[in-house]
């Protein structure tokens, strides 16, 4: 029996399902998850000594790979000065200045500790700023694990749901009365959002979305979609909220809003911003952000918000992310996509990619919305996933997730990824 298998059995006794976040359990793809012993740059090594090229990167944060020298140095230095004060520190200003300088729509920003918190506070702020209660979210977008957004959510919610289209909350425990305030439209369907805004005229605080969906697999916005949402929000007095927890500092230096040239009213950030530490943020215009306590009446707080070690990691990460990094990520992504294209077509698969975010779909036509992803051959995806893992390529264990490329993949590793995924495509179709 492998060491990972033994650890999973031991974990099961004291941790529900043996994992601290559901999708880690490999429930959708079969097999047991390897327990990870350490990371080295762009690779991870499990407790049994297997080595993988890591295309998960802790689900997005580790754009610089594992144990990046500058991030390590910055966090060790910060930790040695004390782990937390619950009082303002200079590093928080530096990080806020760095974010404001990069993200086009953000004039002021508040730091928190997880993407879930960032979207939760953004929803509250949008409701307060507009004096309205309803939120429009898009089917298959994931905005964290709090009640208001657990309605037709992607990621783990989609991975473990029965796939039924319902208007019910995405989880038991979310009150129907709360879920009712969240109305859902399909992704990439402007007319559906327009209809909802008209149906609930004067009631919609925010239209919230992932500007590139990553939590139903990677699905880019169709031409004109983000611009259309911007215009609809202006027309109906609703705030446009971009959840850039995944896309922020990932698809461009200033996130998807820079990449597509569309300015939201509020932006949620996480993942890359913390360089692998618990750090997230939400920001927008000074006018809206100044409604937060202590300046304004909208309450928001966090004991570990702006934690000095996490801030040091975030700063050390962002400082390395110059435009050449995004050119490198794009070149690596394009090389993988071009190399795989013939095999994907041959096997009736498709792929979406935005820079270093990508998903291979087990469906001939690349999906535009959640219901398309539900038509993928999930059993074939499971076989593909397990064959990739056996071939030394660590992908997210669900069709409803995006893979991420880290900076610094060598030519040899890129070839290993292409060869590993090509062989896995063959394996997925032999059964
Ligand atoms: C990961 C993610 C979240 C949730 O962030 P956590 O840090 O896991 O709470 C929210 N929105 C998007 C788009 C995400 O990808």
Count, helices: 15
Taken from the alpha-carbon principal axes, the silhouette is globular
Strand content: 5-15%
- The CATH homologous superfamily of the domain at 69-318 is named Type I PLP-dependent aspartate aminotransferase-like (Major domain)
Sequence of secondary-structure elements: HEEEHHEHEHHEHEHEHEEHHHEEHHEEH
What's the Cα radius of gyration?
21 Å
How many E-type strands? Answer: 14
User: In terms of per-residue confidence, which ranges show pLDDT below 50 for 5 or more consecutive residues?
Assistant: 162-166
Residue share in helix: 25-40%
Outline:
The protein is an alpha/beta fold. Helix content is 38%, strand content 14%.
What this model shows, in words?
The chain is an alpha/beta fold. The protein has a domain at 69-318: Type I PLP-dependent aspartate aminotransferase-like (Major domain) (Aspartate Aminotransferase, domain 2, 3-Layer(aba) Sandwich), CATH 3.40.640. The chain has 15 helices and 14 strands. A hairpin with a 2-residue loop joins β1 and β2. It is globular and about 55 Å long. It binds pyridoxal-5'-phosphate.
